[in-house]
Records
---
Amino acid sequence: MRIVLMTAALLLPSILVSAADVEVVTGGLMEAEGGSWTPDQSPLISPFGVAFDSAETMWIVELEGGRVHRLTADGTLSLAGGATESAYTGDGGPLRQARFNGMHNCAVLPNDDLLIADSWNHVIRRVNAGNGVISTLAGTGSAGFSGDGGAATRAEFDFVMCITLTPKADRVHVADLKNLRIREVNLGTGLVRTVAGNGERGVPADGAVATAAPLIDPRAAAEDEQGILYILERGGHALRAVLPDGTIRTVAGTGKRGFADGPAAESEFGSPKHLCIGPQGKVYIADDQNGAIRVYDPAEKSVRTVLGRSFGDPAIRLKNPHGVTWHKGWLYVVDMGNNRILRVRG
């Protein structure tokens, strides 16, 4: 194991710990992992999502801490906005004065504007990269279901859990949790529509029209290069896929909570929370209650574990891993329960 001290100053000392192909980007190794670091030393409070801009700045949003941080390429961590007090304020002003409520994740547009899933405010916020001014991209701030076919700024959502850009970054998929739907905001027209879920709770039948099918609790969704939209369901313990023809099917998970790798149809998950698409269309899954990062391989139709539970690096112990982001050959893992961020070489 090697420890490399980075040169830039941080709010806390910047330490990058490496073990095999696993690195701790913020935080350190805990006693059970061979280190002495503790989660309460972290400058982060329950982080969930990360995303990168063109300058290789990592943007970090906190679920419970209510803050937005930036970690620059030279290793400098700074507070960019938000506060531990929950609110829905700041539109029209600078990010540093904005307040949020239960942010789950974020995404960066090609022009470096930052999008934030301000979950319990039921909106998507947008931070202008040029002047740092924040505004609301979608949602009214009131919980409800309305607006399909119209402007996203006048539409109602109910718990915007996670947002994900399409490969061309022309649309944003929204896990509209309590409405039991996946919705889509077109960034060119500003219009919103439903792409999966009919508002009823249930397991969708394989081959059903996605917009006419029920969902159990859609937590996150991501589209691959082939136009397949993957939907992760926490309470359903399963991964669904909406095919380009608009039909839905379950591609991984039995629906029963457990932990099992192998053939995708026989695999088991434990309340999975987030997903991202990696090379070859592989789907990486933050398997929350199992303390593991899993990967679904659509070519092999299999599931395997890449980190946690003695996989990957046997020393690493994950606690409530919530966010996964693929970026330039690395899988970034937000280990929320341990207030740290790791990355795994792809």
---
Amino acid sequence: MKYYLSLPLLLMCLLVSCGKNNTTDYEELLSPLYTPEYASGFEVYSLDGCASTVIRSKNPWMGASGEYRDAFVRRGDEQPPKGFVGTVVPADPQRIVVLSSSYIGMLDRLGAVQRIVGVSGLPYVTNAYLRDPLNGVRDLGFDLNYELLLSLTPDVVLLYGQESANTTVTNKLDELKVPYIYFGEYLEEHPLGKSEWIVAAGELLDRRDRAIRYQHEVSSRYSRVREVAAQAEVLPTVMLNLPYNDVWQLPPKASFQTTLLTDAGSVPFYGSDERGEMQQIGMETAIEYLQKADYWLHLGMVTEYRDLPPALMARSSTIRPIQEDHLYNNNRITNDAGGNAYFETGPVEPDVILADLVSIFHPELMEHEPVYYRHISVH
């Protein structure tokens, strides 16, 4: 009889909340475990008396201010402490669904890409393992197929917040009892801030040390390449992008792209705002910039000079980068559907992207075969 009475007590002991005192305020239980050096969008906390940890995603969608979402990364049978508000995700998940291609790069670098069972937009993925039909990875579409999602029995969904809290998706995931966590690397303004999100992925995968070591190596290589670029005596000007519906977009001054270009020893044209979303300029303003620019980068799907829009080709004699044969596109690694590795593995390889750019702008300083960029020859 004692055995049967003690079993519920044993289970209660195993399923205890973290924290020595359940009356303690939740925030007081948190201690910084990893504070990013470059990323502004996440932090990792340990919990008093708990092996589990918390990943806090801060302002995880465009335009968020003062928002955060906590994910309790559960180890063993531990339960979140009193006062916790957020999602509960298992540590070391074996079945993962990713809703952004950049998460694929993170998991690949951590040796966990084979845990991915579902993605959003599979035709646009460049990873060979995920694209191989024999491996059974399913495409959930851009409008999530929840029936398919549920059939995959994921341990966690790596969620992509775009312009709001995305409550339609999160409410449905809550209803289906599918664990999820917000990742917001795409919002980072510094290239090393993007790559540093690999530490959040490492925390989730119980590979924290491996992820931190990877980030340190990337940061060290990035710094060395930036030091090489700093030796340049002449800084070329750079124009970006192509028009869409006669509207040209440029990144703000504080952005991933402008930081990369500046660190590579160039002077990019950018939008009028300090930070935020891509900013629009008129066609005539863009042509004016092109008349001054030394280089023209990021040309959409263009792989040959003749692919440029006819309206721009008609003005080629006034576009300086065309006259100088200085057109480069960041689509050297693509698949048949137009999926681009620049957006998949590039976020965790800013050091490689930087080396590509320095070798383009300052070949006298760095001998390097570009990985992500191709030359669009005008001849």
---
Amino acid sequence: MSTVVVVGSQWGDEGKGKIVDLLTEHADVVARFQGGHNAGHTVINDKGQFILHLVPSGVFAEDKQMVIGNGVVISPSDLIEEIDGLEERGIRLAGRLSISNAAHVIMPWHVVIDQGREAQAQSGTTKIGTTGRGIGPTYTAKMDRSGIRMGDLLDPALLKEKVKRVLDEVNPIMVQRYATPPLVVEEVCKVYLGYGQRLADHITDTVTVVQETMAAGRNLLIEGAQGTHLDIDHGTYPFVTSSNCTAGGACTGLGIGPTQIDGVVGIVKAYTTRVGEGPFPTELNDEIGVRLQTTGGEFGATTGRTRRCGWFDAVLVRRSAQLNGLTTLAITKLDVLDELPTLRICTGYRVDGEELATFPTQGKLFAACEPVYKEMAGWETTTHGITDLAKLPKQARAYLKEIERLVGVPIGLVATGPERESTIINDLPF
């Protein structure tokens, strides 16, 4: 029996969907522990291309169980749409998907507040680059104990009581600050009770589901969304998401203990990307950056926004290794670098001519960092579809070896294309 957590180790968009889909073959249950439908996990397999937002990426193995844990915030309408879309394409979810009754619900006022705040933000520390889907305000409501949970959608009296209490406070704010018409308690309840009826067969105590999985000696694969440096506590604050996307979040987001985790896989691109605002030391605002965007298809799966691109940042990923206790690295998009004659890896940061001894945790200091680079030869030949490490060009093997050395974590998998089969498997975490 093994319990393995998969996390993004940069700023999200690292290719977690493909790796989770690949590893699902060795799991019995796949569980998602945080985030919301702001995540977009792309999976390409023999059934086609899919972009998943809430349903775990292991859903395509039809003999496996899926879990959406209590740490996830859920837009019921989007979840239903995603379930319907999968079933229309032959992916059955009945009897396979469990949704935590303690997961918080994204309500209409959360979306209004999220979009209103971002629209009023100007720049700098006030503009975050949120997707505007209500994620942050839902987590805020969770923390101030005014949230609505999935289990509440099954209790008409309780839901009405909670919605009325919130709208008494929120309606004046929406009208005055965001020029939005007030919401009507009865109308909101009618819609959300309908969602509850539709999802009732899936809503349950998922802590029991995952604990029984482990007690029975079955393999549990845990999927994170976003990336380590978007973590609300450990990311480049305030340009972060609203949840804990590090491996520790899997414990609170699913109801498992840290001693129950056997391995942590850190997903990293062979270069670095970032969506939205925030400092990015290795960002390339030149022809190479544009080439990485184009070749790598660096456009958000959820929003379509262009991703900022830069060289691989070993300092950033080494910090991720510490925060997550990484046991394995999975490198994605190696083939995107195929045409480049020279590559760079960031090995340190310099501020005012002085190299930093520790990772800069203050945003202002991080924004002032200049990267210290090691230059390496590119391979200028295709690696797409290679499945044997020994068949990679020697320069590509040297590049991977250097990443491994600088980060201090062994590389277990290397993706040489978006397809499931375009993967070098050096070592599996199960």
